[in-house]
Amino acid sequence: MLTAEKMGAWRGRYQLAADGQPVAVWDPSWWRSGGDFEVHGQRYQVRSNGWGTKYRLLDEAGAEIALVERAGRKHWTAQSAGRSYEFRRASFWGNRQELVTDGVVTGSMRRVSAWSGAIEADLPGLSLPLQIFVIGVQLALWQAQQTAAASA
Question: Which residues contact 111 (CB under 8 A, 6 or more apart)?
């Protein structure tokens, strides 16, 4: 189980922990959708296209490690190392995302609290950097939704 807890009221940084042990800090970008994190001494960047529908996970050299397409839609995918991982929103009104393998739900992530912004994710079969990437994409999407709602 991977959890993400907001580190403070400002800036949107999250402490990520695997089974209670800290593994990374999600540091959102100030000027565009995405962010940065470090795992096992390796730094990663998450960048989106202008519409926030595609996100790329880049390593320190700028090489693409993974890609999320159709972000924010009911059905979306993450691709990495020649594999495709299918996700779907569990309900129109909820914030739970399900990992689907061969038509069967095998994992999920959800916002535990709207107040704290805490997230729980159980994403078996995904590497730790890929799990953090997927969580980071969800955080970026939820942040964009909150910003849009506040400005409306």
Answer: 95, 117, 118, 119, 142
Cβ-contact 143, 135 below 8 angstroms:
no
Compute φ and ψ for 43, nearest 5 degrees.
-95, 140
Lookup: tokens for 144: 């964009």
Tell the residue number behind the tokens 């296209």, with chain if given: 49
Amino acid at 105: V
Plot region of 84 (φ>0 → left; ψ -120 to 50 → alpha; else → beta)? beta
Distance from the Cα of residue 7 to its chain's centroid: 16
User: Is-above-0.70 flag for pTM?
Assistant: yes
What value does the mean pLDDT of the chain take?
A: 88
